Amino acid sequence: MLPAATDTTNILLVKLIELQFNETEPPSILSTGPQSTDVQIRWVNGLWFSALACSLSTALISMLAKQWLQAYLPNVSGSPRHRARQRQTRFMHLEAWRVPAIINALPLLLHVALLLFFAGLVVLLWSVDLAISLATWIIVLFAYAFYFASIAVPLFYPDCPYQHPVTDRLRIWLSPDRTSPPPLLEEPINTTYDARTCAATFEDAIDATALAWLFNKSTDQAVVSSALRAIAGLPRDFSALRILRDAGALPLIEHGFQSCFHKDTTVDLQWHLVDPESAQLYCRAWMKLTRGTAEQWPFDIVEPLWMLQDLNTHPDVAAIASCAVALSSFDSHMSQWELLAYLARCTAGETQLSETTQCCILDSISECFVRWEMPLAVIEDTATRAVPILLRMFYLTEDLPNSRVRSAAALALHIVTCGGAIDLGFYMSEDTRRKQYCELMIEALSAIVTTPARFGVQDGLLDIVSAELARLASPIVAQSERFPQRLRTVARSSLSTLYADGRIAQGTVPDSILADVLHLLFPPAYLTQPQQSVFVTTLVETLETSSHPGITNWAVRLLEVLLSRCSLAVLQAFVESNGINAVVRAAKAGVVDSRRLQIDSLRTLCAFIASATQEYKGTTTSHPTLKTHIDTLFQSDFFDTLCSIVASRRWWLFEVSGHWLPAIVELCRIRPNERVWQPVFKTFKEFADRNVGEEGYSETLSHLEVIRKVSKEELEESGSISSSEVSTEYSSNK
């Protein structure tokens, strides 16, 4: 397109010749052939330079793409799972940023460059020779007709070998709802997410898409089988199962399960097991993908599943097959009972099942109970079978507090005993199960304690219930804000029943746990009068046999509440179980160990005195039992201990005048002739003199004046001491 020096020279020579001949036109020998116009020259140059630009751009982008793919090569270390996640993450980013589309577009650039070059060639030859131009144009036309035909034909004939990236894209654009072609020609379902919009990689989605990529892309059947069996090992709370289902994993798993058997079609048409371990993994993978759905086990492979269920040589394999059968037949209770039979044999030591298999059985039982629609009688019968087995599992795993079996058994026990609607999806996470373990067990065990006969629980199993429920007292006491009041009340009521029955006592549970149990029982739940008597007797026995400070403190406090305004039967139970001496010993131990224990012990004995005197005054005739109770009190070391405690320490005067002296005054009114009143009056008078002017001082003097008058009158009337001696004694004390 630029002016050439030879062209200028040629033009000048032509002009010179024209002048020499003096003619307006040059001779015929000077005439030239066809000349290209400026428009044609521009078209040719434009088309060819565009072709050149496309070719060079293809080379440049190819080099860049090669560098991108070089970074995709695995160059990380770590576990196989970590490396797989790294590879899948990079693959998902390549997909999100359209790297495969860019690479697929590179040949199109070369095709366009060739088209532009041919077009420029045709334009160039058009002004030179029409015949040659037409021949070239026809050849180019046929070539590109074949090119476009190879793109269009696969749209109508998917099995045509003329595959092209443009064809796949056109197929998606023209028929987005078109049924997917066979797996060999199928594009993998888009299960990725836009990596550019994600702040962090979702690990479950990465794992799912990696597995889907493997079993959809790999042509090695061993790799496909490994990817499908790996679904069995996914965590229970795996959240990306939908990706695997959408990727077509379920029919592949069913086909893989069928490949673990050989069907003899020559003689007996029987299925023969080839690979039991792989069949187990396929079963577990199928259960994971169908859990919570209405999917049923395919009818055409039910027979090999039943055969696997009867495999006695591989108990784990047979148990997993039984789980698949149970989850496919919610309308039959026999399959659920079969699962209970496996657990029963496991707890009895007749068979050995792995922890994974036990958890799978327990989860299947939970799902069956939640989704069951059976008659109430069948559900009750199943609960009676299930609860004893689950309790034995807790007994066998009591030394494994972090076992996954315990958390799964806790959920199953709660569902069986408490019933009601429950969201199993909330309890898929192992962390959630462990956090909710105490709440689930408290409600379940309390339901068993309330109606043990309903669940087939007898003496030995009740001991297991007692031990498990007692262990839960410690977290309730230590983390009281975590548990609602309703749950604390339920636990207190059940523990009260078990403690009164003697199933929770020193020796049956550790001392620290027993102390927490008594702490939780304070204040005691509502008890009937017979229950109160039994409860008091049990508390006194605990007080006499234990030296643990926590047990002693809470036993004394509970006795104080139970003896306050109690009935004659409770008083009798307290005295006959030697409760007076037991509490007096606790008060003496408080001299060394605890000032609080001294106060609680004296309050307990004063509560006993108040209730006894109230009962005594309420009877119209002399009651021999009450007289015996009061005699026992005077025969004990109570008054000596009382005087020594009051004299040994500085007490809050209001405690003395508000809790101790009122009961003692009432006792003095009933038994004024006892000689203990003189040292009692003297001790309390000296104590009052040390606390002149404090709160309760005047009340203390009033109580002491009553003791002085009542006992003085009785002594004078009995004649055991002269009136002058009485006046001298009390005057000196005063």
TrEMBL record:
<protein>
    <recommendedName>
        <fullName>DUF6535 domain-containing protein</fullName>
    </recommendedName>
</protein>
<dbReference type="Pfam" id="PF20153">
    <property type="entry name" value="DUF6535"/>
</dbReference>
<feature type="region of interest" description="Disordered">
    <location>
        <begin position="713"/>
        <end position="734"/>
    </location>
</feature>
<feature type="domain" description="DUF6535">
    <location>
        <begin position="3"/>
        <end position="127"/>
    </location>
</feature>
<keyword id="KW-0472">Membrane</keyword>
<feature type="transmembrane region" description="Helical">
    <location>
        <begin position="108"/>
        <end position="128"/>
    </location>
</feature>
<dbReference type="InterPro" id="IPR011989">
    <property type="entry name" value="ARM-like"/>
</dbReference>
<keyword id="KW-1133">Transmembrane helix</keyword>
<feature type="transmembrane region" description="Helical">
    <location>
        <begin position="134"/>
        <end position="157"/>
    </location>
</feature>
<keyword id="KW-0812">Transmembrane</keyword>
<feature type="transmembrane region" description="Helical">
    <location>
        <begin position="46"/>
        <end position="65"/>
    </location>
</feature>
<feature type="compositionally biased region" description="Low complexity">
    <location>
        <begin position="718"/>
        <end position="734"/>
    </location>
</feature>
<dbReference type="InterPro" id="IPR045338">
    <property type="entry name" value="DUF6535"/>
</dbReference>
<dbReference type="InterPro" id="IPR016024">
    <property type="entry name" value="ARM-type_fold"/>
</dbReference>
